């Protein structure tokens, strides 16, 4: 039974789901098996590799224990890394690596070179993760990370794992340059003192602008694919935490002062707008009064014109009435003159002329002449008009007497 069981164990093995196997036969050949179930190995060697392997750097606090490793799961304690500004921090990461089961030759070559999954992870993957974190920390200040460049950190980290490590180069930049600050209305420069140079690192690029990489230990040559690579947490050193607290207070105070300054600015703008509104309102009121007075003046002028026309017409009517009465008086006078010339005695003639004169005077007195008249473009009173009419009558009588 023992021999039989040994023969069975050497001939068969059970393939688990989610695991690819490289079977190396005693005859020298090898084969990739990716399906689960009972498989033949013919006393050969099998190298199991998980389709996807989870690798985590975990920040262990106090007495917490690190989770244990298992097939496809590898955990280790997070390490301290130094950023470009010499600030140190423990960085926890989560990386998921997958093997290439679509290319049997690449898979078998990787299995043959690494012999086991643990050697692949500890000998190949973890050193690449460390190199990617180290390079990324060189390219960034801790202050930059907390100021909004955390996504850039993840992008650099994953890009190096997928495509190869960056080659970095040193350069110097002015540390204390003049800062431009301002709000919505004013932009001004603040001199922060004498500038000094600070050593920095940046990604090295060729003459064509492409990134220069170090591909000597790239995971791509093993057919590995990065499904996930990101930073899950950072534990800064105590001195930086204290500085962050002070900075947060300063930022909060600055934001508060900025908001107060903007509030005052908009309050001033509001007052200016209110003044402009009141000016526009007053201007509209005065324009309304001006228009009203203009219309009233124009109306008064038109009414005066109409009154002048009406007075003129009234004067013409009264003038025609006066002429009519004058014609009637002249006719009476002519008739009386004929009677006198027909044989009246001097006494009767004198009495007749007296009555005639009295009658004409009475008619002229009863005549309703206008208070003002216009003759030859000149304005006169009713007395002048009456004198004119009487004078004309007398003149006519004198001419009759001469005849």
Keywords:
24% strand; rod-shaped; three-stranded antiparallel β-sheet; coiled coil; Tetrahydropterin Synthase, Chain A; SPFH domain-containing protein; 403 residues
Total domain units: 3
- Whole-angstrom Rg: 61 Å
Largest sheet: 5 strands, mixed
> What's the name of the CATH homologous superfamily of the largest domain?
Band 7 domain
Which structural category do the helix and sheet elements fall into?
Answer: alpha+beta
**Share in β-strands:** 15-25%
**CATH architecture term of the largest domain:** 2-Layer Sandwich
The termini sit apart by: 190 Å
CATH class of the largest domain: Alpha Beta
Low-confidence stretches: none
Count of helical regions: 7
Secondary-structure element series: HEEEEEEEEEHHHEEEEEEEHHEEH
Quick recap:
This protein is α+β, with helices and mostly antiparallel strands. The protein is built from 7 helices and 18 strands.
